[in-house]
Amino acid sequence: MDLRHVPGARERGWYLALMAPNVKGPNYAWLDPSRLYCHPQGLQDCVADLLQPFCGDSIDLVAGIDAMGFILGAAAAAVLRKGFLAIRKAGHLCVETLAQPYTDYSGRQKLMEIRTDVVAPGLRVLLVDQWVETGGTMRAAIELVERQGGPRGRPVPAGVAAICIEDSEGGRWLRERYKCAHCVPPRLQPRFDRHQ
């Protein structure tokens, strides 16, 4: 991979070709976006595409989901000049937390945690992850944010952003309820949904 090469015509999603297919078997995601993050222009364009639908929206905080959502979430927070909140797998935060069980894309039961001293009532939080397959992980993160209510109301998810939001039952659930952004052009969506 040449990290210096940038195509002359950079159409939306050009950087998706930088991702590498799974060569390790069924216990891993079908596609690995981490090579995209190594390409300076690819990463910048990916983050710009994710944030474009939220231009002009009120966003107070960006939350990234453990672990690869930390990369895109922190990059988005830097571009927006907002703070970044890490939503962690259980057992990694040494402060008071709220926990939420969930089932990940592979069908494994897990527990996610969020610190309780950052998300305030009325705060608008953009939730970012690398990928949404079944939607279970993102849904748990949304529930954690929404549970931190109070007398002035609950925090509000400003939206959901990921490189790909698959057209799964969980992906459709998210799209029906929240503003969503992802980088896959409509003509390529069926291939991503079929993991091709």
Automatic annotation (TrEMBL):
Its EC number is 2.4.2.7. InterPro entries: Adenine_PRTase, PRTase-like, PRTase_dom. Coiled coil: none annotated. Pathway: Purine metabolism; AMP biosynthesis via salvage pathway; AMP from adenine: step 1/1. Pfam families: Pribosyltran (PF00156). The keyword Cytoplasm applies. It comes from the Eukaryota. It is an enzyme of class 2 (transferase). The keyword Glycosyltransferase applies. One of its GO terms (molecular function) is adenine phosphoribosyltransferase activity. Keywords: Cytoplasm, Glycosyltransferase, Purine salvage, Transferase. One of its GO terms (biological process) is purine ribonucleoside salvage. It is found in: Cytoplasm. Homodimer. Belongs to the purine/pyrimidine phosphoribosyltransferase family. This is adenine phosphoribosyltransferase. It comes from Crypturellus soui. The lineage of its organism: Eukaryota, Metazoa, Chordata, Craniata, Vertebrata.
